[in-house]
């Protein structure tokens, strides 16, 4: 599932992105309303977490834009806790409203509840050739054989599976799995992909994790 976080407090945005990625989601982050609008206009999201007080465009304005484009679930996350603010948000079409400070476990529960309600349901099990990735149970197997992965390996595999067939850049993978931007000389992603391949690809056929030289990585099965 692909989520957008629009939050101008950098530490809060980083905290949210890290927790959501570790919970199996793909996450984009915008630190102001103008960047948020750009993401909303350029990509489709399964859910958007939105602050109210934002530079550039505020949350109310972004919510109106979101509703003009469709029915993507929106969770307001804001320090504005007055009753009239909550009512305004819900009247404008927000699906939920959580006041700061908040517990991440509560936010995660609300996110999952909204995704269950929404038109797009989170895929619980990915099956690609003989690879099976069970998101809820956090289990991976090939050919019926269980494979033990670290949290980061699972997040990397989940990202690749959730965007099957897409070529994902090293920068995108680093931002989604580790919530990092990194120098081009860093080989962190290559090392992680190599370790993941050693567990889920090297001992098996067909090969599912593909390197697109100079671009990034792709997970897909050959045509039947």
The proportion of residues forming helix, as a percent range, comes to: 40-55%
Approximate shape: elongated
Low-confidence spans: none
Work out the helix count.
8
Order of strands, main sheet, comes to 2-1-3-4-5
Radius of gyration: 19 Å
> What is the CATH architecture assignment of the largest domain?
3-Layer(aba) Sandwich
CATH structural fold name of the largest domain: Rossmann fold
Order of helices and strands: EHEHEHEHEHEEEEHEHHEE
In CATH, what is the class of the largest domain? Alpha Beta
| Main sheet characteristics | 5 strands, parallel
* Helix and strand composition category: alpha/beta
How large is the share of residues in beta strands? 15-25%
Average of per-residue pLDDT values: 85
How many structurally independent domains? 2
N/C terminus separation: 26 Å
CATH superfamily of the largest domain: Response regulator
The tally of beta strands, per DSSP, is 12
Modified residues (4-aspartylphosphate): 51
DNA-binding region: 123-221
Organism: Pseudomonas eucalypticola
Domain OmpR/PhoB-type: 123-221
Write the layout of secondary structure elements.
Layout: E1 2-6, H1 10-22, E2 26-30, H2 33-42, E3 47-50, H3 59-69, E4 74-78, H4 83-92, E5 96-99, H5 104-117, E6 125-128, E7 131-134, E8 139-142, E9 145-147, H6 151-162, E10 168-169, H7 170-177, H8 188-200, E11 209-212, E12 216-219
Domain OmpR/PhoB-type: 123-221
Domain Response regulatory: 2-115
Protein name: Heavy metal response regulator transcription factor
